[in-house]
Design brief:
- The structure is a single chain.
- By secondary structure, the chain is of the alpha/beta class.
- It has two domains: 2-54, no CATH class; 66-168, Dna Topoisomerase Vi A Subunit, Chain: A, domain 2 (3-Layer(aba) Sandwich), CATH 3.40.1360.10.
- It is 32% helix and 24% strand.
- It has helices spanning 2-6, 66-70, 81-91, 108-112, 126-138, 152-159, 161-168, and strands at residues 10-11, 26-32, 35-42, 52-54, 74-79, 95-98, 117-122, 141-145.
- The strands form two sheets. It has a four-stranded antiparallel sheet, with no helix packed on it. The chain has a four-stranded parallel sheet with strand order 6-5-7-8, sandwiched between helices.
- Helix 6 crosses helix 7.
- The protein is globular.
- The two termini are 26 Å apart.
Length: 172
Amino acid sequence: MEAARLARLGVVVEAEIGHDAFIGRLSIPYITKTGVVDLRFRSLNPAVEPKYMGMTGAETKMFNVLDIEKAGNYIGVCEGELDTITMSSCIGIPCVGVPGANSWKKHYTRLLADFERIFVFADGDQPGKEFANSLARELPVTIVQLPDGEDVNSSYVKYGADYIREKAGLNE
């Protein structure tokens, strides 16, 4: 619950005019120093499609950018907002994320260029592997490959924070 509070997650109960499609969805704010710059909405019912929705006309942004300032000499990159929140709040690895494997933009590379180590936590599927490999072509990253069929959240639930920190070589 603390991680959800810190990330300012909520469920849409009453929608603004024209946004009725978001009712009953998890609201995920994209927060910067200037405030909320975007919102994404995730279905709470896996049978409902689409799983994710965004504001009409909004451009894809990097998620959890405030961790860039909090991070020391390393940072993680995840695919997905909820994986990013888990990594940052529950596992203790400062992390940024993108809303999908194909959402990386070239200028994000500059935001991470000064870190000594960048960990890409690759989902255990083909898009996750391709995402990690594409980042490795742009940045000197350490790919932390998660097991087949797993992502950060499912690995955290199944194996715990120490497992993920150990895979990254960050257990103290």
